[in-house]
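Limitations
The structure tokens in this dataset are predictions for the assembled complex, not deposited experimental models. Users should treat interface geometry with appropriate caution, especially where small molecules or nucleic acid strands are included. An illustrative entry is reproduced here so readers can see what is and is not provided.
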Amino acid sequence: MLSFIAQRVLKGVIVLLAIVVLNFFLIRLAPGDPAVVMAGEAGASDQIFVNQLREKFGLDKPLPEQLFLYVKGVVTLDLGFSFRQQAPVAKLIGERLPATLLLTLTAFAISLALGILFGTFAARFAGTFLDTAITVFALIFYAMPIFWVALMGILLFSVTMDWLPSFGYETVGANLTGFAHAVDVAKHLIMPAMTLGLFFMATYTRMTRASMLEVKRLDFVKTARAKGLSDAVIQRRHVLRNALLPVVTLAGVHSGTLIGGAVITETVFAWPGIGRLMYDALLQRDYNLLLGVFVICSAMVLIFNLITDLVYRLVDPRIEFAS
Amino acid sequence: MKQFWKSMLRSPSGVIGLIILVLAISVALFGPMLFPNSPWRMVQRPFLPPFTLSTVPLGTDALGRDVFAGMIFGARVSLLVGLVSTLVALIVGVPIGAMAGYFGGRVDDALMRFTEFFQTIPSFALAIVLVAILQPSIYSIVTSIALVSWPPVARLVRGEVLSLRTREYVQAAVVTGQSNTWIIMREILPNALSPVIVLASLMVATAILLESSLSFLGLGDPNLISWGYMVGAGRTVIRQAWWITVFPGVAILISVLGLNLIGEGLNDALNPRLSREGR
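Predicted assembly:
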């Protein structure tokens, strides 16, 4: 088990390093001489200042050395400096990370729970009206762009019904503490998390349904039935447990899409996470910040993949850790 | 071929999907002929509600531009980006997957590590970064969407080629001294085509969603009106004018839904052994 984890972590670190190198070259692809751009962003553009910047950020050194310094910086969590926001990129991201984690993990939990629930129902009542209804809904949610779902949610629940706040993380100026604050944050969280979760819920519903129908036909289910086990026990202990394996795999594959969806969701709901930060960086063409967020997003995906891999092995005892 | 159409037309999702696609393509092709005016032009007072004037059936946006005309021109961009970026992704992914599957060994290892690497990077974030750096244009959008969507193609083709490579007719071609390229192109790939076609139809749908999301964030081609751009532009005035955001979104939803249904129909028609009970 430990050697498996070590092996996977090592692989993840290598991939992350490759992403950092890719990032380095992407920065070089950005339009304009970085030093001139930075000087412009800092509000001065005389040659002496540009040269100073070039020296300060090592832009006068040969490319391989620059690459080495950049990688070294990222390893020590130095992601560069955002001139627009006048703060180190790592600090900006650090401040925003908890909000993103809260949003994505809630959305993930909602989508997985509801997806498995609906998928199980659809498979249980395959061919009936309930199954058709669930399948059609899943198809529709699967085809909706996240930003549009978000706006329709605002239109329905904020503008028309006035039930939920349409933006932000907490009520500005309310200065709530303790439980009242938690409730306030939860109210703000419902719509973004549901928006982000619905698309994935649709995927998990379809996957669970298909997978359960597949497992149901296998011989061991017939055996269980022959043993005289009740239908509920067969469904829960035998069919569902085996049917969940592909769903777990899918959840791992989707972690990158989840982060991408968070960028959109946070933008629409002004949720103060790194997705919103990425959008701000985009509007201001703040490339250092943009690519910093990109590296952190990639790292999050890698960690998430590692976790789903572990879960997969816990759920399915047939897969050995040593392999 | 006849058999294919027969089974395609037997699956209800395939039929609905085909109808939607044919409709969308005709709108994209012929719609602009009915609306010769540029969708960027002001035609009426701003914020004209829908269903009030028959000349502007879906109302106008914050600048008095015709929402319906915008949707018709937007169909072009969405379908074009969807189709072209999928095509580019196939051009990249199919050879990589075919080579990995056919040659095996180290070539396979290297190519698959490369593919996995691209698959690990969060795709939408990478697309945002690429379009931002290359500057928004229809070319940079197509390039970045293709670049983030080829890995599944490569993996799928690799798997197919792996299983086809050991077939007797391929062995026969090897024995008769055919070149590797000839064997891959003429013997293996045609037989690996059907799952690739199914995947491609789903990829077009995903590409349309990606394009609309990029345009929504302001990364669309500034010279072309698109559905995502329209929703993004209507976002700030959603309290006064719901129709600006609602209608283009419905257009995206219907086209993506249509393509997903086609994917399902194709899957039923091309891989009958995979179609499941209860459908």
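Some entries come with short summary sentences. For this one: The two ends of chain B are 23 Å apart (CA to CA).
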